[in-house]
Design brief:
Strand content of chain B: over 45%
Largest interface: A-B, 24 and 24 residues
Number of strands of chain A: 11
Radius of gyration of chain A: 13 Å
Structural class of chain B: mainly beta
Structural class of chain A: mainly beta
Distance between the termini of chain B: 40 Å
Order of helices and strands of chain A: EEEEEEEEEEE
Radius of gyration of chain B: 13 Å
Largest sheet of chain B: 6 strands, mixed
Largest sheet of chain A: 7 strands, mixed
Oligomer: heterodimer
Order of helices and strands of chain B: EEEEEEEEEEE
Number of helices of chain B: 0
Low-confidence stretches of chain A: none
Number of strands of chain B: 11
Distance between the termini of chain A: 31 Å
Low-confidence stretches of chain B: none
Strand content of chain A: over 45%
């Protein structure tokens, strides 16, 4: 694995509670991404970051926010978790944008919202 | 809209045979494609990539073929081994310059 850790690896939470997932990298890559993976949908981009304090939305950003205060950390926050946000969340990093650079993925966080 | 899909959701092959996993894409402007392998409980792992100025690229036991005329991508695995059993995803760089993933094909290798 390319120096990417995610925490927690598993979490069960109740509807309406806030949840923050953390992605940490040791590769000093500029780009970081958050995806969710659901059966039948593959990987879908939630948010991404192209530098410290620089973030943008992906295709499924509603209900999620992100922050990046340091190069190595990218946080994903669910302000008020809903059952539809039960999923496996993956963080990825890349040296540059997806115009020609591979993304390396973390081990994932399994989130269950009850 | 964009779509990156797979012709077959599952594929079973005998150990030692060659495997071919297919992928169709609809964005003719995409110029970069990647194949990933995902084992159960793990994150996707980069296998091989190809740019649109190429038709073929080879790696260790893997070959990716790109047919831009019909917007088709394939991954060939030579001498398939039990350790190759996994879900394989193709991805293309989208108009937003991010990766857009297909839903995956599950490859099962029969010993």
């Amino acid at each position: 694995d390319a120096g990417i850790t995610q925490s927690p690896r598993h979490k069960v939470t109740e509807t309406g509670t806030p949840v923050t997932l953390r992605c940490h990298q040791t590769e000093n890559h500029r780009y970081m991404y958050w995806y969710r993976q659901d059966p039948g949908h593959g990987l879908r981009l939630i948010h991404y970051s192209y530098g410290v304090k620089d973030t943008d939305k992906g295709e499924v950003s509603d209900g999620y926010s992100v922050s990046r205060s340091k190069t190595e950390d990218f946080l994903l926050t669910l302000e008020s978790a809903t059952s539809s946000q039960t999923s496996v969340y993956f963080c990825a990093i890349s040296e540059s944008g997806a115009g020609g650079y591979e993304q390396y993925f973390g081990p994932g966080t399994r989130l269950t919202v009850t | 809209g964009e779509s990156v899909g797979l012709h077959l959701p599952t594929l079973s092959v005998q150990e030692g045979d060659n495997s071919i996993i297919n992928c169709a894409y609809s964005n003719s402007a995409s110029d970069y494609f990647i194949w990933y392998k995902q084992e159960s409980g793990k994150g996707p792992q980069f296998i091989i990539d190809i740019r649109s100025n190429m038709d073929k690229r080879q790696g260790q036991r893997v070959t990716v073929l790109l047919n831009k005329t019909v917007k088709h991508l394939s991954l060939q695995i030579a001498a398939t081994q039990p350790g190759d059993s996994a879900v394989y995803f193709c991805a293309e760089n989208s108009r937003a310059n991010n990766l857009f993933f297909g839903t995956g094909t599950r490859l099962t290798v029969i010993p």
